[in-house]
């Protein structure tokens, strides 16, 4: 079965039918704001950290599969005149799953375009995150291919996550009580916990004045109904509901009249915004969200040409990255992979280090220490200045013993206590990534950068000292054969020779180790030889050998 | 709007339409096996502990609401002959939500009966947990009210939880890899992790030989489909799929021919079973589940009359409990509440202590120390011997300081480290519950029972000593006004005068306290006066004052 093909001209992967065996996804965003998006508009968004600053809800392992996303519904407000056509549908197939006459998804570099056609109405939605912004744009273009005028309602819908995605997924009692929103004519603001202890909020805005809205999930969907057939879309009636607790959603209705052959573009903006702590409310002393700081951002993307300009800027950014390394080989498949898709993949890894995907639910882990040092070998030539910053972040989560937290949380950059340390190969990878960085850039200065241990001010030492401790950590921890002790595990995370997990529910990654003075790792021994050679070479060049 | 009424004769609450404002639930089981069941057959089951031994999956806060349950589908295998009737439907309304001609749910004492009628086929399902068993029965009776013979397929379906409900809800990567089942002609066995580190499994059996089955969710539902319209039910074709990883379900198909006016009963059994660790496999040394130990249980409920006998035994058990206290007042509403429903409620609290409900997702907490001591005042006259055991369990989770873990996990009976201690009113409630128990039973001997602290062998002291430490704990922790220090919180769990949570994501219950030597609790002071009076009275009676 063939589901898609590469468009080498545009650097896009084109999916030709919506019901792929599993959702096929793309990543939006490459700075602070990120999104996962499937070929049928499923997925979710977050600011920096998929666990701690989740903007929208997504239900992993749910049925129907891939539930939760960036949903648009189209409704024929004169459905009675077209009795053979469905009265409403999703131009991205999900969540209504009403068969489309035409469908195409294009996963590009940092953007996704989904086209659909049904009942003579053609649609195209371009989803992307502009550079330098903490927001995503959904640009919807509709074209009336009928011979008659079409009177349509466009509905957009997201379900907000109550920020901490872990708590959101598990703590129902709390979820029921804390949701809060505000609404003005074209924008829905999600401000749960803003009054108490947050200075950030989410917003969902439309380029047009909404003719109706809903912010209570139950009001929009109707009781005992799912996303496949919202009551509000079926009936054409929004409730203008205000969520007080419950499940806040952002759903906007826009009415549209399209003459035969007419084309029209509407855009939606979903964003994250922080206010200064002393300017949270407007007027001061009230409990009303200060929106003055965010309005200019929303208004910017209502101006003609701004979205197109932002999109071109994003395309140029990616072209620039691809230009850093281009090869030509006898095999076009190799060229395509090396010149486009591997670079793209490597940058996704730089951005997220596997912390959120359609397999990793974005709540179980942060940025891996080993992972990220390894990844760096792939992207150091693409973004050397960001590689430098990443090395210093990683080193700052190293412990004074030379060991490393196995992961750190991207929002706080602090080591993850739940998983802890004890993967004895971890620190050696830092030596390899630093060596790769220095070879690529010639920036020997990085070795003299002062970096704290465990992010504790006052413990700063040069990065070079950090590397020495990494080497020393291995040398000081050796077993009966004088090979390195494995600790909790080596690169084979599941080996766990020191934790005999015979109890249900024990996590292999976090169970307490039993006596750890015997099990050795041949793998770490091999890694040490490489790291030690790199270290010796750096010491020689610096005259410190 | 009226949704139901009390049937005082049968001690049942009768719900008259399926789309109640929220799911209205009942509790099944009163010993080791428990289930929550809504008026449309939603809910889930577990053995002892809603978090650690969850049998079936339930999706809180999902849409459509109340997804996951004990589902039956009826399919007209000659639907072409009845073109105006739906080809398949749910006799409990959910999950198909196809409107029924008749519907009634009766929540009784430890059982729920759901009746439905559509297309001339009347159905009644009785769900209950037999006394002394770790299983639940679904007894389905069908009656053909048509003038023609009906050829039907009956489908039953549950989705298994991979045991630890917390992990199941959050750890997708792991979920995808670990699922395992076995199937024989009438039974599906769910045995995830059985080979590695469990000796328990779940089973789902039918009184009839199945004509087809599925154990892969995707095979039963079809891709991108939900529970409202499984592909297998729509098509009439089961895949006989074996789940290897993925999402194990238990779905059985039984074909049935019902003459005009004919009635037939089919039963399903969903159960939990443990094998001796040295008899896990059959033959020994293989990786095949030893089913010899469970077959007699399954076979028992296939014998004529066994289900009816078990049901009558359950009804007699509840009658016996109700008989312990009956009042007659001028107000029939008071009588109904005191004589039936308050007793029932109090026993649900004894069994679960709020650890699982449609608000508490069953993964966030165990049995509350304060809660359970309070609850005891309500059930001590109903089950004094079980109240005694509960007191000793609670006391064993007390700490040597006299403080108490705020909660303990029902499976292990050990204190819950995640929530910890520091709710300074907690230990005083133990004094009240013991006093209530002694007053009710005259069992002064309980005060001399040796009980460990923090479940640590070797630390045993008399229960009386535990109570003394509880009193001493309060006396030794007083603030500037000589009133008791509040610690983390008192009965008002959210007061938290010592934790100034200004960081997003901090839990009010578990955040670290700041200096706790100032904030006092007038509430604890009042509680102390009551507890101290009870303690003094007990000391006097025992001649220990």
Describe the structure.
The structure is a homodimer of 545-residue chains. Chain A is α+β, with helices and mostly antiparallel strands and 545 residues long. Chain A folds into two domains: 4-315, Distorted Sandwich (Beta-galactosidase, Chain A, domain 5), CATH 2.70.98.40; 365-541, Alpha/alpha barrel (Glycosyltransferase), CATH 1.50.10.10. Helices cover 27% and strands 24% of the residues of chain A. In chain A, the strands form five sheets. In chain A, strands 1-2-9-10-11-12-19-16-15-14 form a ten-stranded antiparallel beta sheet, with no helix packed on it. In chain A, strands 6, 7, 8, 13, 17 and 18 form a six-stranded antiparallel beta sheet that branches. Chain A has a three-stranded antiparallel beta sheet with strand order 3-4-5, with no helix packed on it. The mean pLDDT of chain A is 94. The interface between A and B is large, with 47 and 48 residues.
């Amino acid at each position: 079965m063939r589901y898609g093909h590469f468009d080498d001209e545009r650097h896009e992967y084109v999916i030709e039918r919506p019901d792929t065996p599993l959702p096929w996804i793309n990543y939006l965003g490459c700075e602070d704001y990120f999104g996962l998006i499937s070929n049928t508009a499923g997925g979710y968004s977050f600011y920096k950290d998929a666990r701690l600053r989740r903007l929208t809800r997504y239900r992993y392992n749910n049925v129907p599969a891939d539930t939760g996303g960036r949903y648009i519904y189209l409704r024929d407000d004169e459905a009675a005149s077209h009795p053979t056509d469905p009265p409403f549908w999703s131009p991205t197939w999900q969540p209504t799953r009403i068969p489309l006459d035409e469908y195409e998804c294009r996963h590009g570099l940092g953007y996704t375009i989904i086209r659909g056609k049904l009942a003579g109405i053609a649609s195209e939605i371009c989803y992307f995150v502009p550079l330098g912004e903490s927001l995503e744009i959904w640009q919807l273009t509709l074209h009336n291919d009928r011979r008659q005028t079409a009177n349509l309602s466009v509905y957009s819908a997201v379900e907000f996550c109550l920020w901490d995605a872990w708590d959101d997924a598990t703590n129902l009692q709390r979820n029921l009580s804390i949701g809060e929103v505000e609404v003005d004519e074209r924008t829905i603001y999600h401000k749960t916990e803003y009054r108490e202890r947050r200075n950030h909020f989410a917003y969902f805005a439309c380029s047009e004045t909404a003719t109706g809205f809903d912010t209570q999930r139950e009001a929009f969907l109707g009781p005992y109904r799912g996303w496949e057939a919202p009551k509000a879309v079926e009936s054409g009636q929004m409730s203008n509901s205000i969520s007080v607790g419950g499940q806040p959603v952002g759903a906007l209705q826009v009415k549209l009249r399209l003459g035969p052959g007419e084309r029209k573009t509407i855009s939606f903006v979903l964003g994250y915004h922080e206010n200064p702590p002393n300017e949270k409310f407007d007027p001061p002393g009230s409990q009303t969200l200060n929106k003055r700081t965010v309005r200019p951002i929303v208004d910017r993307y209502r101006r003609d040409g701004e979205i197109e300009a932002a999109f071109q800027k994003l395309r140029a950014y990616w072209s620039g990255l691809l230009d850093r390394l281009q090869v030509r080989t006898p095999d076009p498949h190799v060229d395509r992979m090396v010149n486009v898709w591997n670079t793209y993949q490597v940058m996704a890894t730089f951005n997220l280090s596997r912390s959120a995907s359609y397999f990793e639910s974005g709540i179980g882990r942060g940025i891996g220490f080993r992972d990220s040092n390894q990844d760096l070998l792939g992207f150091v030539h693409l973004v050397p200045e960001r590689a430098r910053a990443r090395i210093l972040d990683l080193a700052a989560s190293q412990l004074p013993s030379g060991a490393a937290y196995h992961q750190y949380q991207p929002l706080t950059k602090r080591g993850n206590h739940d998983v802890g340390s004890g993967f004895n190969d971890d620190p050696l990878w830092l030596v390899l990534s630093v060596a790769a960085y220095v070879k690529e850039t010639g920036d020997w200065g990085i070795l003299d950068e002062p970096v704290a241990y465990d992010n504790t001010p006052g413990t700063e030492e040069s990065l070079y000292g950090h590397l020495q401790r990494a080497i020393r950590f291995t040398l000081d921890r050796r077993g009966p054969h004088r090979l390195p002790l494995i600790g909790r595990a080596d690169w084979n995370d599941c080996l766990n020779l020191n934790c005999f997990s015979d109890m249900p529910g024990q996590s292999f990654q976090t169970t307490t180790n039993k006596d750890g003075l015997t099990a050795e790792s041949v793998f770490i021994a091999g890694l040490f030889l490489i790291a030690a050679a790199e270290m010796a070479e750096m010491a020689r060049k610096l005259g410190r050998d």
